[in-house]
Each structure stands twice: as structure tokens, then as C-alpha cells.
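ok so for the tutorial part 2 we go from a plain amino acid sequence to predicted C-alpha cells. step 1 is just haveing the sequence, like this:
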Amino acid sequence: MHLPSAFRSPLAVGALAIALTAALAACSPASTTSPEPSAGESVAESAAASTNADATTIVISGNSFGDDLTLPAGTVIVFRNDDGHGHTATEGEEGTAAADARFDFSLASGQTSDQVVLEAGTYHVTCKIHSSMSLTITVE
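step 2 — the prediction. this is what the C-alpha cells look like for a chain of 140 residues:
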């Protein structure tokens, strides 16, 4: 294809590229879908996390997760490590992850985990580094 000389200059090519990009963007429908859930996260968990549900931060301090919790379904849970050394927040018991663990975070000192939203049920939390650390979360 032979283009007239006016369309062969770098400025004209750049302007054409910008115009085409803008036209294509205008023709694309706006995205109204939720992001795909990450590995290990169900669609229900992804949707609940994006609804700005009530949040609970579990603070790890003094080699402890704190007291056991009872939370309503849909609560966003975040783990924060306030100790001066690393921990994990792992679904499991006595330092061992459950075979189907829904979460397993390594947390350096001062670090906060990703959000976790759990369905109704009872969840045991452990630290794989400090097996004596435990927490039970009951979600109703």
C-alpha cells in the first residue's frame, strides 16, 4: 500500500496512532465485572472482599494472635505482625498447615497480610514458625 507523503512523516504517524487509540478506547465497553479471584480464593470470597465489609485486624504481638474471635460472615480479616521477628498466619494447627488451607501468609516484622474473607465455619490459625501460637476464628 502506498501512502501519500503527508502520511509518512513521523508526526503524522504519531497523530494517527493517537487518534486510532482514542477511537478504539471509545468503542470499548466499560468494564463492570469484578476482578477474577486470586488462586485459593472463591468467587464468593472475592465479591465479599470488594464490598467494603467490616474489617478486623488480628494483631500478632508477644508471639500471640490474641483471643479467639467470633465474627459475622463477610468480615474482612487482616493479620498484622507487631513483633520484632517473623511469623506466619496459617490455617492449621500446631505449626502445620491444614491440607486445604485457605490462607498461609509469611509476615515479616511490621508487615500486614492480604485480606481474608471466610465463609461460615470454624477456622484454626497457627504460626508455622512458632507452633505454640494458635487462634480459633468462628464465622457465623
